[in-house]
Design a protein that fits this description.
The chain is mainly β. The protein has one domain (about 50-234): Porin, CATH 2.40.160. It contains two helices and ten strands, in the order αβββββββββαβ.
């Protein structure tokens, strides 16, 4: 009996070895993957909502087109440089009405092209890794914004203090979104953004405070928007 048991010991040991070998070779899959590349460059499109301000003078909403370049820093932080354009329209009011107790009449609309250039600090919530190839983030930045179209033909007869102009103005940017990294080199990105710029009030409009109520000397206008873009990482 003891001889039979002794003979079976090598058999059991061999079976345990071959049974455990496949298990030791298995790897536990993880939903997290490291982002190995540091640089990225790409383009984006989107749409911004309209916020013309209290006096209805600022540009409205419209499509948004732009490009960005980014570099990953240590851990969850990255720096980005962004340029964008928003083709839109603005309402033109005539403040030359001599009756000070009335509201300036609207005389038409003018094309507008708001341009922005800014730098942003991006914080990725999953650090320098993706979660199921997703990398959600928040961002904050600042730069300059301006309406590149200049004066409208409707304003040819207006003095400088009777015309509305936007910028160059400080531009504030904040937002959140996520990146999707389907391959080692390509990124698809969604952003929900708030752009904030300063719209000044032409001096001539202060003559209409009785009809307009309180007239701000300058107004910080917040314009929300959504963008979708793609980038190449390298």
């Amino acid at each position: 009996m003891h001889r039979r048991m002794a003979a079976l010991v090598p058999v059991f040991l061999a079976g345990a070895f071959f049974w455990s070998s496949p298990l030791s070779a298995q790897q536990i899959s993880s939903p997290y993957d490291f982002i190995d590349t540091r640089h990225q460059a790409g383009v984006f499109v989107g749409y911004t909502g309209g916020n013309r301000g209290q006096l209805d003078l600022a540009p409205g909403g419209g499509p948004l087109l732009g490009g960005r370049y980014g570099i990953e820093l240590s851990g969850p932080f990255a720096l980005e440089a962004t340029a964008f354009f928003i083709p839109s329209e603005r309402n033109v009011y005539d403040p030359t009405d001599p009756q000070e107790d009335e509201v300036p009449p609207m005389i038409g609309t003018s094309s507008s092209l708001v341009a922005g250039l800014d730098g942003r600090l991006r914080f990725t919530l999953t650090g320098d890794r993706t979660w199921y190839r997703l990398a959600p983030f928040v961002l904050l930045g600042g730069g300059l914004a301006s309406d590149l179209t200049g004066r409208s033909s409707l304003e040819d007869e207006f003095r400088d203090d009777e015309r509305f102009s936007l910028g160059p103005s400080f531009l504030g940017v904040m937002g959140a979104g996520t990146r999707w990294l389907p391959t080692d080199r390509v990124t698809v990105r969604f952003d929900a953004l708030l752009h904030i710029w300063k719209a000044g009030t032409p001096r001539a409009f202060f003559e209409f405070e009785e009809g307009l109520g309180s007239v701000p000397e300058q107004e910080w206008t917040g314009v929300g928007g959504l963008t979708l873009g793609t980038s190449i990482r390298f």
